[in-house]
Amino acid sequence: MSKASTATKRLLLGRPFRSDTLGHTLLPKRIALPVFASDAMSSVAYAPQEIFLVLSVAGLSAYTYTPWIGLAVALVMVVVVASYRQNVHAYPSGGGDYEVATTNLGPTAGLTVGSALLVDYVLTVAVSIASAAENIGSAVPFVQTHKVLFCVVAIVLLTSINLRGLRESGTAFAIPTYAFIVGMVVMLAWGFLRVYVFGDDIHSETAGYEIKAEQDHLIGIAFVFLIARAFSSGCAALTGVEAISNGVPAFQKPKSRNAATTLLLLGSISIVLLMGIILLAKEIGVKYVSDPARDLLGAPEGYEQKSLIAQIAHAVFGGFTPGFYFVTVVTALILVLAANTAFNGFPVLGSVLAQDRYLPRQLHTRGDRLAFSNGILFLAAAAIAFIVAFGAEVTALIQLYIVGVFVSFTLSQIGMVKHWTRHLKTERDPNARARMIRSRIINTIGLLMTGSVLIIVLITKFLAGAWIAIVAMVAIFGLMKLIHRHYASVQAELDNSDYEAVLPSRTHSIVLVSTLHLPSRRALAFARATRPDKLEAVTVNVDDRDTRKLVAQWEDSDITVPLKVIASPYREVTRPVIDYVRRLRRESPRDVVTVFIPEYVVGHWWEQILHNQSALRLKGRLLFEPGVMVTSVPWQLSSSDRRKRDRTYIAPGDTRRGVGTLPGERIEPL
Amino acid sequence: MSKASTATKRLLLGRPFRSDTLGHTLLPKRIALPVFASDAMSSVAYAPQEIFLVLSVAGLSAYTYTPWIGLAVALVMVVVVASYRQNVHAYPSGGGDYEVATTNLGPTAGLTVGSALLVDYVLTVAVSIASAAENIGSAVPFVQTHKVLFCVVAIVLLTSINLRGLRESGTAFAIPTYAFIVGMVVMLAWGFLRVYVFGDDIHSETAGYEIKAEQDHLIGIAFVFLIARAFSSGCAALTGVEAISNGVPAFQKPKSRNAATTLLLLGSISIVLLMGIILLAKEIGVKYVSDPARDLLGAPEGYEQKSLIAQIAHAVFGGFTPGFYFVTVVTALILVLAANTAFNGFPVLGSVLAQDRYLPRQLHTRGDRLAFSNGILFLAAAAIAFIVAFGAEVTALIQLYIVGVFVSFTLSQIGMVKHWTRHLKTERDPNARARMIRSRIINTIGLLMTGSVLIIVLITKFLAGAWIAIVAMVAIFGLMKLIHRHYASVQAELDNSDYEAVLPSRTHSIVLVSTLHLPSRRALAFARATRPDKLEAVTVNVDDRDTRKLVAQWEDSDITVPLKVIASPYREVTRPVIDYVRRLRRESPRDVVTVFIPEYVVGHWWEQILHNQSALRLKGRLLFEPGVMVTSVPWQLSSSDRRKRDRTYIAPGDTRRGVGTLPGERIEPL
């Protein structure tokens, strides 16, 4: 082949780099908001409740601090949103915190963020589903008493939906998310209207009970600690805010600007809902304690405590039960949606980590069904383990939750500060410099804020459970380091190996046959078609009778390829073939030996057990011999047809990553 | 290639059909006896005890029948030994009952025998180990109270020894077997001497206790039923007698004569031991009941009942404890040896069944380590399941045991009767006819005897547990039928397929590359060495950056093979390659397409997870396309060396099958 033919190298099928330009269905802001916001927004379903719960330890009087804690959380939210608006502009590629940390702080920081996020995805599923169970449980007593069962069933359902390949659509996200926003806004507005405008005297069902404070009259450090813990728990409202920074490529142009606007919208809605819920709950006397039988004085025997949102809905809508049910259902729905985003995000993050060789390489191929399945199954198993271990208690799970989020926030902000500093060194345009300096200030504030929250979270939650999340992160970090090291050592081995690209002088082909059936004949015909320098058929004599029959058939047939019988004193197949191939290699070391193996192709896994096992094992062993190629010549049995009819698979998370089929485009089934 | 070259077809490596003529170490009778007799002889360790146990239900008076039951069992033994001496002469190939039934009664009868024997091997392990535990437990109280644990540990030990490939030797069999015979004979002789010659008044430790009969004064049918049950249980002494008929090829010449003599020897020793044990036990007042706390009046609180043999040894040797310990230890040893024979026999039977396509074909290759491992693991798991389910109680397990043996005995004898009848039709020599008629008479008596015992066993034991064994046999029978049917349908499909042996007109080779590293270069070089009509390299664009880099490298390199980039809109590897190959096939249907896949060869299973996964999946899918060959071009990473150092493997059961290495012959490690 001449150098000229390299011109054909560029011959591409279809348009070049089709995956970049084709199949994008870009999201307008009104769809992007629900697609990326369900995780963040759903956290207002449990964050305020956790604030009330923590403070109940010090008795009812501590509830006076709830608005202030809410404000502190809202402040953190403002800062984080402002910071991530800078991220979105600086890194529009959708790499998110992992990319920011890796680029600016090096691979170790990136890997730390990666581990934190992987653990966090697991906890997102656990916390969201547990909280959904709690909200549904407020309306359906059966769920209340069988929370763990409900959660496990829900996770199994989500898993099977995602394993089958859920085709995401903007609508699927939009309806529950907007329904949740509408439900919440209506509930809050109606509630405040009734209280402040109509002057109705509405009370939650727990308003009449007294909290039995575990620790009455907390003072000094202990009280500060309690407030800090309540604040930490409230910061759960921030989880999921970073999702938009992973989704910039899916936005319509101007991508970064639209993403930043959507982020602002998300932050505003979250703050409104958070503050509204806290203020209204306090107004109507909601109480939320960890053990109502012990801590709620005046409650009737066997009282089942409703979730905070359910208590508000119950009080606000009074006799109008559809309102109460609507709010509980949409709250549960958005929580399930939030859990589902983890099912999409986890394998996507896995593919990014695999690209950087921190996870098995095959996870990199995003469209690959099996790679995704493994990720989904791992996520589901881990989430179920957490659910069972913590009895589906939101309060217990939330102790583990936000460490990872804030590790990721903080490292990302450090990275952004470095990013701007680096760019300022080269940038000369005063306007651009001014913008960069402004951005750096915002990210510095973000860093100080998220760093402080991280420290507070670590102090107040370490012993309560955060250590478990940290241990998990460290373990995943270590495992990914080991995988990376393995790939690096393979790379080094390849770099150091000598390989002269001289062509092997001749090819010597052998066809393995056991009986003279059609698969063997096809293998012989294919082997002859490759016109090797030497071609022979080889059979291993594991059974005298069979071998004699084969030799007789061979002599009677029209086959001109010579048949060689290899003795097998121990009636095995592998060793004699290996020995024979080694002998060929010794005799002419510059030849390449090709071993043709006829194989049945079957449609069922159990047929696989009944066929090819010796061939597979032999193939595996032959590959250990240098200078040997192994060629499978398939014979398709009729049962193999069913495998061709496998349905088309859509990878989860496509919509969020801006990947999709164009209208009318059809994927041809394999 | 000309017709003349078919002369080289016969070129064999080494001597022709080496596995037949080489590597046999034939056994003299003195070694053959212990090798094949441990199973049969060990059953006298539990058979007499079961007779005593069953009769104890009717109280002490029923013990007067023990000698008569013993005689009945001995009579069956005489008949069975005489019958099998005919088998051994008629079928010297070692196929045993399976071969006799298949040849004379057709495949269904053969398969019935096969299923019965498979179940029986499992029960041999369970019963032998449970009985060993009982005997050891008579000397070591800890084993008595932890029988299940002891049995499970023992089976796991046996399994691991056999998985590692136990090199059998005649000595390993001879020492425990002869020690058992000597121990028993000395014990019995000394016991009878003391009683009848010295006139010592020796008593077993249970002699002073009274049996509380469950059913006093049994009369009529009920009593006959009890006697029949005792007889059925006693027939457990016959298990393992058929083993010699599987081992004829391992005997020194004249094989059949020597095997028949050994059979006679085995039968004689078994009868002597059986009758000796029963008579002496009765003489010294041994009692054996199912629940000593309930059924033994006068026994102290917490009395642990010793096995029957231990009771005899204890009484006979009196103060001489080494004698007592010697007898218990050799009894346990021969029982473990008997269990071990099942570990050898099970995979061997599996390989025979696989040869006839009743089990996955790869089990046929006897020397194959993996095939044997699977058989051994299955046997061990099933035996452990039985041990645990029945609490390692010999009495419970023995209810399941002998159905299979007698199914196999009976079918084998029917087969032998037909065998002689068939031969008598053609035989004209009066002497030969006389011998055949004599043999047929013996086998007919054998048939009547074993058939009657089978009916008695079925009647007396069906509800007590034999039904479980029967259900297991039916299930295995059905499974093997299904496997056979599958193979037959594949055969039919191949027979009905049209295949013109015309050579494909041209070969079109494609080499899959992802990066331009050494494995890819080797694959390209090897592919070029096969001189295809058309050769091109193909890469799937799952990542733009990577693909651009590859294209740039390719253009800078000295490679003259053109590189084709395939678009992958969904970032997957498999589908675009399949589509491309299909397009090639459509364009020139008579070409054969060869896909070269560079593969890493690694040494650890976890490395396998980190490499080749996409390649393996692609390979699996490509095989479904007709007219496509898949060639693996291996690149051996340094870690792959460790796999080459795997130690040599000796298949279990070689000694019994007459297969072994000649002195000084060495197996080269793979």
Automatic annotation (TrEMBL), chains A, B:
GO terms for molecular function: transmembrane transporter activity. Keywords: Membrane, Transmembrane, Transmembrane helix. It is found in: Membrane. It comes from the Bacteria. It is a multi-pass membrane protein. Residues 651-670 are annotated as: Disordered. Gene3D superfamilies: Amino acid/polyamine transporter I. Its main location: membrane. One of its GO terms (cellular component) is membrane. The keyword Transmembrane helix applies. The chain crosses the membrane at residues 65-84, 105-133, 145-163, 175-197, 217-241, 262-281, 324-349, 370-392, 398-420, 441-459, 465-483. This is Amino acid/polyamine/organocation transporter (APC superfamily). It comes from Williamsia limnetica.
